[in-house]
Amino acid sequence: MTIYIDNKPYEVKPGKNLLEACLELGLNLPYFCWHPALGSVGACRQCAVKVFKDEDDKTGRLVMGCMEPVRDNLRLSIEDPGAKTFRDQVIGWLMTNHPHDCAVCDEGGSCHLQDMTVMTGHTYRNYRFSKRTFENQDLGPFISHEMNRCIQCYRCVRFYKDYAGGKDLNVFAAHNHVYFGRCENGTLESEFSGNLAEVCPTGVFTDKTLHSHYTRKWDMTWAPSVCQGCSLGCNTSAGERYGSLRQITNRYNGEVNGYFLCDRGRFGYEFVNSDQRILQAAIRPHYNGTTNKDHILEQVAQKVKNGRTIGIGSPRASLESNYALKLLVGEDNFYLGMSDTDHDHTSLALKILRDGPARTPSMQEAAKADVVFILGEDLTNTAPMLALAVRQAAQHKPESDAMGDIHVAAWQDAAVREAVQDKHGPVYIFHTVPTKLDELAEDIHRGAPEQLARLGFAIAQMLGADIVPVTGLSQEDAALAEKIAAALMTAEHPLIISGYGSGCDHMMKAAANIAWALQQKGRNPMLSLTLPEVNSMGLEILGGHRLDTALDVLRQGDADTVIVLENDLYRRADPHIIDEIFLHAQDVILIDHLYNRTAEKATVLLPAGTFAEADGTVVNNEGRAQRFYQVFVPKGDMQESWRWCLQIAEKAGITALQGLRNLDDIDLALTNGMPSLEPLQQLAPHAGFRINGQRIPREPHRYSGRTAILANENVSEPKPAEDVDTPLSFTMEGYRGEPPSPLIPFFWSPGWNSVQSVNKYQQEIGGHLHGGDPGIRLLEPHLNGGPHYFHEAPDTFVPIPGHVHIMPLYHIYGSEELSMYTPGIAQQAGEFCCLYLNPEDLAQWNIAPGNWVTIDLDHHACRLVATPNHWMPRGLGAVSAGMPHSPVVDLPVCVKLQA
Amino acid sequence: MFSLLRSMWLVFLHTFHKRETYQYPEEKAPLPARWRGRIALTRDPDGGERCVGCYLCAAACPVDCISLQATEAPDGRRYPSFFRINFSRCIFCGFCEEACPTYAIQLLPDFEMAEYDRQNLVYEKEDLLINSQGKYPGYNYYRVAGMAIEGKDKGEAQHEEPPVNIKSLLP
Amino acid sequence: MEAHYWWVIGGVLFTLLNTAAGLIWLERRMLALWQDRYGPNRAGPFGILIVLADTLKLFFKEDWIPPFADKVVFVFAPAVVVASVLMAFAVVPFGPNIVVADMNIGILFFLAMSSLGVYSIVLGGWASNNKYALLGAMRGASQMISYEVFMGLALMGTVVLSGTFNLGKIVEAQRGMWYIFPQLLGFLIFFIAGIAETHRLPFDIPEAESELVAGFHSEYSGMKFGMFFIGEYLGITLISSMIVTLYFGGWLGPAFLPGVIWFILKTFVFISVFILLRASMPRPRYDQLMEYGWKVLFPLSLLNLLGTAAIKLLIDK
């Protein structure tokens, strides 16, 4: 439909409000309380425009742009003097209490309030009287609080409570005293609290980790990156200054993470700056004390050439690095650096998604589901952003009902919420222990993972899957299964979620059966499977041998040199197994970035770049390949792991890697070697890509201090580093317009310094980025032929006398290796030496709660603190997975209890 | 034509004018107080560093010769943990002084900074920080800003009301 | 050749090159004088050693030939200007018997040599392979060729009066009256054309640093630039000495000083006028310069020649 803005006709999509329409057209209209993901409430009165009756109407009336839907032939004016004055005065009132703080405010330079103040032209505070002040609260290690700066837009609570389901942030007091905070000091409980820093239009909530090494947005060197915290692969922008990573911000991707990130992803970056980083290449025992890189490469090449070498890849290394290692050691000598359970889960997930007919959704598609069935997964802890998507999906049905009843648009947030109240769409959760999403669930079912999977199989069977019938269900269970099956059948977009979270692969099988059965019934199911790590899927697609076979090969003396790629083997199998690997291997060459237990024992250390110092590609749980880009050039010998492999190969004369020099070369080799990865060639522009002959600058045009940063070392400035791998430049020189979507280092637009400038990069507000969202899906459902159902449901879980079956419990803070180097995350990580057991089990085995118990793990004794947990069925135990120094690594496992 | 000859004549007459040159270094030129010379970091009336590390000077600098890192002291005051000016690049434009919201960075009437070694023109914070308030005596940024620091709690700055008691029900 | 000639040649060369170098100092001092400054006054007495310092500096400057330049021509061009101007000095009578080549076509030789000077500008600008240099060279070529025409025509007045092309004889012919009086118009035209010929301010259009960086010698540095520099000062000296020779009686003067000294004094007066012009005149636009030349000076010089010839015929009859 056509609307007229300042007498110029524009084509807009129906169903939008005027503010959205104006922003979509690239016009500047200030706003505060509206947020593309949160909708409109019309509270701040900032987006006022004049709307006219018809062509002859010269008076018009002021309306709030965010509250007025577009109509055909609507005439409005942004530039109308009345509207402009109104907006100027509104911001004047908002600023009466805003402190004189910009110089000491972390938001300054990326502040929506600053931008909007400049946009409206309010330059001088006319209000002569005193400013209101507030006391601040300590909100924990992630978020700083400075209430004086508040302009009462309510965005924080609308995001925190309404959108992310937080409970502990609220609005207090009244009239001009309203206060946004907790009822007392304390860490924010929500896993999405970091988004407050981006949602808040000014500096009330700011990033505390950034504060500890504060740098303005304009002073950072940015690069498009991908979060390394879990398998979802949220898009981030990573910023560097003075050689350390300073901040992770959200990089909008209309299909993956949208506007938000979880706290693990946002704050878990500090391992890059860790003092545990390996900075120089080294050989043990130290060879003449030299750390000369060429010499060490020579030595390593000799070892690789003379020895019988095997390589161990890593799910936290890029596709390129794993593939380079695979070619370096030869396909037959490449082992997947995942624990065997992870490998089983990932290969199963790959099989389900690649060979089955059900489609796996992107996260934004998942958020549009109308029925959600979560099978054995604590999403908040294993895939936090997917949990946020489920929260939106749970709102979906009551919202559309309400919109039907009261005839409002979806963006009329207050009205919709008023109508919805606390209704939820149907969400069903099967998990052994309570999860944060339980509050949304219509039905919750607890029990041992096998029991839950059995019920899942039963549902699949009820939906018509051709499998062995599940017997022995209680009447209640059968009724529940019927109910869920019926709900799934009536849904338009049912979403079934499962994954690695309960350590039981039958969960995934059951989920697959359900999805496939729905597909056979002509429904349109979505099947989402969580995976353990950022590139688990990519590594599995590359393929390789199981980790435990590596030990066999070493034991038999068929290999004597091991190259370990970005992997702490002690997290992949129980310590005694890894110890044996080191025992049998003559040389362990470790290419990694952190000095961990594996590094302590390696004979050669080669410093690898983290995601911030390397280019690479990772594949998320959806099978979406995404490129992350090097942010800065580190000091020392650090370089991409694949580059180490290429250099070793060159010195050792390995023909498979001959002639490969840069990222494009290795990607070409990768797609030639693995035809299924062919789409990777279209993933992002190649290194030779230029716009008007220019690279894309990583640094904003206001980047400061170029001639002073290194002046203390030498007053003559060095030549800036050149990027041979990508079209990005490490300087502020280059093309200043909008880059192609995979190459957006940071969001900025003239007059829009804050992250809100993302509006200018989207095809429509909240939609895809210009030119399509970055990333390419490698897995599409296999629609020909019927599904190959998993026929056998697992046996009923029966406790084995004297034994306990230990399942893993994942935690958003603690279970992931790298994020634990962030002090704030380590501080929030739970107890890691606990064995959760049913209190009755404890009583039966005469273990006092809190006492150490010894378990027999493969004939190795290890000790854990027994903790009662009444959610554990008899005979089942649970251990927090992935915690540092946890004695039990490969979960689930059945162990004997020693008295 | 006549005007050309006239101007030649007038220029020629300058032969007999007094010279304007100061015979530096024997004779020093009088420098006005706003003369843009040596850059210094000043202190506030309490003796604390005025610089709060806001990076505006660095951003304003057209030759990008200012580099610093902001950090926070235990008392809540922000300060630069290092502050470096590469005077071999500085053009003494004074934009940094204009940009400074706390009157910390000031250009002083002194230009005798020549060095034989360029490296000596790199000034660190120790070289820049002076024990004076410079051209703006009496200004104390934290008395105007809303942030609380040790010795100045919320509501104690100029034109501030005491902190709101959010539990109060009074209108 | 006789030893006498070697002394003359050596003496003239020595004096000229030193004069040209000394002009660096003189010009800076005089400009300073008219701008109420001191100018270079530190190195040596009255700062005269600034010449030495400047020369040394020029010698030690990086002698850079741009990679995009036509190297042979680029090196050759600055030599042309110095050589041609020095050649022109061969016919200038410094004193009663002090002249390198006492040619009977002296004036024509002078005109020929100063025409050659344009090659250095054109070649230098072209060889630099730089748009500003080329623009400067184009302007220089058209300016110099145009002004040469009425420069030559203006001189013809004195030739008509004296009946000879030999400069020595022209000087002798002024024993009764300096030609400045009968040839005032010719003198003015010659003077203006001379400024244009040496592309000095206000006619430094080939250089025009406010528009063309440094015009035809933008790409030149070190001693090659120095050659252009010296060539320019030599040009000033040449034009000044020609003015003196042709219009102000050359070496003639009261007998208490030798002729050479009179010649040098008179020459320096005109050199100073050149500098005064630089100190006081704005630069005209390029089109103004050409218009002025062709529409004003050219007809005037023709008139001058006609008038002089007519009067000469009348008187002779």
Describe this entry's structure for a reader.
The complex is a heterotrimer of chains A (899), B (171) and C (317). Helix content of chain A is 27%, strand content 17%. Chain A is built from 25 helices and 35 strands. In chain B, the strands form 2 sheets. Chain B has a 3-stranded antiparallel beta sheet. The radius of gyration of chain B is 24 Å and the shape is elongated. With 317 residues, chain C is mostly helical. Chain C has one domain (68-316). Chain C has 11 helices and no strands. Chain C has helices at residues 3-34, 50-60, 71-88, 106-128, 131-162, 167-173, 184-197, 209-212, 222-247, 259-280, 286-316. The radius of gyration of chain C is 20 Å and the shape is globular. The relative contact order of chain C is 0.14. Chains A and B meet through strand 6 of A and helix 2, strand 2, strand 3 and strand 6 of B.
Could you list some keywords that capture this structure?
heterotrimer, A: 899 residues, alpha/beta, Ubiquitin-like (UB roll), Dimethylsulfoxide Reductase, domain 2, Barwin-like endoglucanases, six-stranded mixed beta barrel, 17% strand, B: 171 residues, alpha+beta, Alpha-Beta Plaits, 5 helices, elongated
* Percent helix of chain A: 25-40%
For the largest beta-sheet of chain A, the strand count, sense and barrel status come to:
6 strands, mixed
Supply the CATH class of one domain in chain A: Alpha Beta
Spatial sequence of strands, sheet with the most strands of chain B: 2-3-5
Shape field of chain B: elongated
Oligomer: heterotrimer
The strand count of chain A comes to: 35
Q: Gyration radius of chain B, to the nearest Å?
A: 24 Å
Strands ordered across the widest β-sheet of chain A: 14-24-23-22-15-16
Please write the CATH class name of one domain in chain B.
Alpha Beta
Instruction: Report the end-to-end length of chain A measured between terminal Cα atoms.
Output: 76 Å
**Number of H/I helices of chain A:** 25
